[in-house]
Hints:
Structural class: mainly alpha
Shape: globular
Oligomer: single chain
Number of strands: 3
Distance between the termini: 70 Å
CATH topology of the largest domain: hpI Integrase, Chain A
Helix content: 40-55%
Order of helices and strands: HHHHHHHHHHHHEEEHHHHHH
CATH class of the largest domain: Mainly Alpha
CATH superfamily of the largest domain: Intergrase catalytic core
Strand content: under 5%
Strand order of the largest sheet: 1-2-3
Number of domains: 3
CATH architecture of the largest domain: Orthogonal Bundle
Number of helices: 18
Amino acid sequence: MSRACRKRPSRLQAEGPLAPYLEPYAEYLAGRGYSQVSYWKKTFLLNEFSQWLGRKGILADEITSGYEEAFLRDRARHRCLKGGDRIALSAMTDWLQEKGIVERRATASVETSGIDRVLREYSSYLHEDRGLAPATIENYAGYVRHFLAEITGASEPRLASLHAGQIADYIRRNAPKDRTFASAKHIVTALRSFFRFARYRDYIHIDLAAAVPSVAGWSMASIPRAMPADYVRVLLSASKTWRTPAGLRNRAILLLLARLGLRAGEVVRLELSDIDWSEGCLGVRGKGRVERPLPLPHDVGEAIAAYLEDGRPNSACRRVFLRSRAPFDGLRSPSDICQIVARAMGRAGIESGSTGAHQLRHALAVDMLRQGASLTDIGQVLRHRSPDATRRYAKVDLEALREVALPWPGAMP
């Protein structure tokens, strides 16, 4: 539904300091696609909160989180407090802050630790100076926070006192044998990045980035975990029967992953303006914020058009793929795409050890290789920045490997 109806307008006749803002907030809720029940629960909660503020003599610009908690405690004495009341009230005050009605004093009044200040500065450096994506910045900051909390053990980290022995000991304890090579490598990559930042900002006076030990691993040691071609056909065939709004969305996402080899994050970031229907192409923003046009296959364009016409809810959000439940915002992260793929595989009856979205990208590369495409062509389709990223697919081309393999010495056992 695009807008919640109002069968009982008397419920919108609020009293108290928030009365002038109830109508705009109700319009805001209705525009975000909330159901009738959710719409009335949220507006009724705001009405009660406004009346409570009026009885206490509290003005709108004086609202704090303490008053929210006091209202909820008082409300619990007269009626059963629902689990979503606290979240709904917090979302309501967030909206009041965005409109400038309530001052954003909650975050300013909370005293931040030295680690928080350093990480905030480090995140700003990664964004403004290095141009990293928000997801990468969040991952790096998480690894560095864990390191600083464990090594310094205080809210005010003394970066100048760090030495190479502490770093090596931390890596030995946090990159054990049971951790995957990629996961352990992320730790050392984040730490090297942080120490380069600390040297640049003069927090440390020696090159600690060079003191971060490498994690034992070998390039191209693993084989791409591609979904078998038969599984891909079964998955896409099963998705043709999905006619619900969420089903139409999920089919379009699966086709983008399987036909164009998009990464999960690239699917999340797709916007309506990225689709050029007249030229039949799709603008994809990949790694390094590089945008490249890709041809839009007929079946992929048909699935996206079906979702936009019959499945996508009305929303001011410009993302192509939205949540299937209110509020109708864009999908939050690549993990949402991975969950969609995992549920789709279960629905199609596919049992596999891997359920991530990237296996469809690997499947496209393997299928192109077996149909005679060169590694250069595959690298261009997958938009690899380095030939090394494409070269690992040569290990799955068994026919070509047989031609260059040396004969087995002696008789076969």
